[in-house]
Amino acid sequence: MKDSRDIPLRSEVVRKAIHLLSLSIPVGYIFVSQRTALTILLPLMVLFVLVDILMHRVHLVRQLYLQLFGFLLRPHELETRRLLLNGASYVFISACLCIWLFPKIIAVTAFAILILADIASALVGKAWGHHRFLDKTAEGSAAFLVVACLTVLALGLWLGAPWSYFVAGLAGAVTGTLAEAASIRLRMDDNLSIPLSIGAIMWLVGWVAERWWQCPFLQLLS
Predict the structure, then answer these.
(1) How many Å apart are CA 1 and CA 69, to the nearest integer?
(2) pTM score, two decimals?
(3) Mean of the pLDDT values across residues 189-201?
(4) Domain ranges of the chain
(5) Cβ contact 114:176 at 8 Å
(6) CA triple 40-45-98, angle to 5 deg
(7) In a 3-state reduction of DSSP, which class is residue 132?
(8) Pair 126, 141: CB distance under 8 Å
(9) Are the beta carbons of 135 and 3 closer than 8 angstroms?
(10) In the structure, what pLDDT confidence band is assigned to residue 2 with cuts at 50, 70 and 90?
C-alpha cells in the first residue's frame, strides 16, 4: 500500500540506516547535561536547515545535493514551489525541542522510540503492509507499537524505573503509534509529531504519578 511519499524499498533501507545513526542523540544525552547537548545540537540543526533551504533556493546547491542524496529523498522533499524541510532537518529540530522542553528521561525515551520504532514501521510497512490504518499500514503501525513498547521495557529495566514509568511509556507508545499513523492528516513531519506527542503524554502521566500515585519517575537520569 503506497502513499504519495513512497520511495523504493532499497532507498528506504538506506534512509533508515542513516536514521539509525540518530540513536546517538538519546544515547549521548544520557551522559551529558541539557546545556552540553543543546550546545552540540543547535549548531547542527542550524547547519542542516540552512543546507536544506539552500537546496530549495540555489540551483547549484540543489544540483550537487541531488547528485549525492537525491535517491534518498521523498517526492515532497523535492518540491520547489514551497519550502519543505527533509527528514534530517526535522530530526535535529525535534531533538533540540525535546531536550529543551522535557525532563531528560522523557526526552531520551521519546527520541529512542522515534528512531527505533519509526524504522521498524517504515520497513515492515514497505515490505509487508497491505491493510490501511489511518494514513499508513496496519502492519507498519503494529511494528511501531511493538518496538516502542520494547524500547520502554529495555530502558525501564536498565534504569530500574518504577512502575509508573512503564505506564507512562505504554501511553507514550500508543500515542506515538497514532501520531505516526496519522502523520499526513496532521500535516506535520512525523519526526516532530512522534516525539513531541510521546513526550507530552509521558509528562502528563509523570505529573499524575508524582502528585497522585506517589510514584515519581521524572527525576530519572537527572
Answers:
(1) 25
(2) 0.85
(3) 95
(4) 9-211
(5) yes
(6) 75
(7) strand
(8) no
(9) yes
(10) very low
